[in-house]
């Protein structure tokens, strides 16, 4: 069985090759492509039985139709989120689509905490200062997190893992989720979204991107937040209206922003653009604020998570190849 692996980075090859070697059953033929999957690159999948894709590969109806036309029968997502897949079109075309629903929720949760800690105590600025012999503390003032209220929008696997760590720090936890979890109730309180926004010193997003959640943090939601609060997004960029966030930062209402994901990240993230002129003016405006911290979608990026992603991805393919039931097919069942 031949698989075109799109958006393949060096680390994807390493962990997929390792998982392929470890398979007791026969391995698969993995054809690595650096390019992201799009209408322009879909021809690279010709002759393959399956494609393996990541968060910024495009799987809209025209791309899926082209894949099916080229003989591809399975789509393997190396991620949990599937907002980039037209699931209805895939079903209509009879394509098998499977994802990796949970590889290491703790990896993403720990990154969300790293962002909160860094932005709050300015360790990224302190690191540079101290290396230049500047030991002044001006500008590095933070707040004690113990006793602060953190609002988690989405209390699924990653939201819960984040809640457990924050509980250990001594934060008060507020949650908003249409499907409440019994475990979260032992850690904090569920409240309505507006109450969460009004009470939280830090708001952290852990819900999926859907048509209902797109731009859920817009000008209205930002105005409802406590003045000076921190907004953290490690989920999907389009949950946040970036222009509205810039306006809230400029008016000094939003205290600080930490993001691992960005609405237009597909043209920027996962590659070295340091020699290029970046023509995304919205992103570049964000980079001018001293109280904004951006990482390039690295929440998932631990060796444990990549090993798990590779193993589950190949296991999903094995289920497709052998016709055995697969619990990771889309759409998911709760
Ligand atoms: N930064 C990264 O590297 C990275 C890695 C993995 C996942 N993610 C993102 O994290 C998201 C969460 O992942 P997960 O594994 O916790 O998913 P999950 O399915 O376990 O949890 C998502 C939760 O969000 C809730 N939800 C849905 N709509 C909501 C709404 N309108 N308001 C509040 N809550 C809502 C769901 O009920 C569910 O409990 C994924 O969808 C993905 O976009 C990011």
Salient structural properties:
single chain; 334 residues; alpha/beta; Rossmann fold; five-stranded parallel beta sheet; 12 helices; binds nicotinamide-adenine-dinucleotide
Descriptive overview:
- The protein is an alpha/beta fold.
- It has two domains: 2-103 and 302-322, Rossmann fold (3-Layer(aba) Sandwich); 105-294, Rossmann fold, CATH 3.40.50.720.
- It contains twelve helices and twelve strands.
- The protein has helices spanning 10-22, 61-69, 87-92, 105-121, 123-131, 157-169, 182-187, 193-199, 219-224, 242-250, 281-286, 303-322, and strands at 2-5, 29-32, 50-53, 74-77, 96-98, 149-153, 172-176, 189-190, 202-205, 230-233, 256-259, 292-294.
- The strands form two sheets. A seven-stranded parallel beta sheet has the order 8-7-6-9-10-11-12, sandwiched between helices. Strands 2-1-3-4-5 form a five-stranded parallel beta sheet.
- Strand 1, helix 1 and strand 2 form a beta-alpha-beta unit.
- Helix 4 crosses helix 6 (157-169).
- It is globular and about 60 Å long.
- It binds nicotinamide-adenine-dinucleotide.
- Residues 80-81, 102, 105, 108, 153-159, 176-179, 206-209, 212-213, 234-236, 260-261, 297, 299-300 line the site of nicotinamide-adenine-dinucleotide.
- Residues 11-329 form the D-isomer specific 2-hydroxyacid dehydrogenase catalytic domain.
- Belongs to the D-isomer specific 2-hydroxyacid dehydrogenase family.
- It holds the Pfam family 2-Hacid_dh_C.
């Amino acid at each position: 069985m031949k698989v075109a692996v799109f958006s393949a980075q060096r680390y994807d090859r390493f962990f997929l090759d390792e998982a392929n070697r470890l398979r007791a059953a026969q391995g698969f033929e993995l054809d690595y492509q650096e390019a992201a999957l799009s209408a322009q690159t879909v021809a690279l999948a010709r002759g393959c039985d399956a494609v393996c894709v990541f968060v910024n590969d495009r799987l809209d109806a025209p791309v899926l139709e082209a894949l099916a036309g080229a003989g591809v029968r399975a789509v393997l997502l190396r991620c949990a989120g599937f907002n980039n897949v037209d699931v209805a079109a895939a079903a209509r075309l009879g394509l098998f689509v499977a994802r990796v629903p949970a590889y290491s929720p703790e990896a993403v949760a720990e990154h969300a905490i790293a962002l909160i800690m860094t932005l709050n105590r300015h360790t990224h600025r302190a690191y540079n200062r101290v290396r230049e012999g500047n030991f002044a503390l001006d500008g590095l003032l933070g707040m004690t997190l113990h006793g602060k209220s953190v609002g988690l929008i989405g209390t699924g696997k990653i939201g819960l893992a984040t809640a457990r760590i924050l509980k250990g720090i001594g934060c008060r936890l507020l949650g908003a989720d249409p499907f409440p979890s019994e475990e979260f109730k032992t850690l904090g309180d569920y409240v309505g979204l507006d109450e969460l926004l009004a009470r939280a010193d830090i708001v952290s997003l852990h819900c999926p991107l859907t048509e209902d959640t797109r731009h859920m943090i817009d000008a209205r939601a930002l105005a409802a937040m406590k003045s000076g609060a921190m907004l953290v997004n490690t989920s999907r960029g389009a949950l946040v209206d970036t222009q509205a966030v810039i306006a809230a930062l400029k008016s000094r209402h939003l205290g600080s922003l930490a993001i691992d994901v960005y609405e237009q990240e597909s043209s920027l993230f996962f590659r070295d653009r340091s020699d290029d002129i970046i023509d995304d003016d919205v992103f570049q405006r964000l980079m001018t604020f001293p109280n904004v911290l951006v990482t390039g979608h690295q929440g998932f990026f631990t060796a444990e998570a990549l090993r798990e992603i590779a193993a589950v991805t190949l296991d999903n393919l094995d289920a497709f190849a052998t016709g055995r039931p697969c619990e990771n097919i889309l759409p998911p069942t709760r």
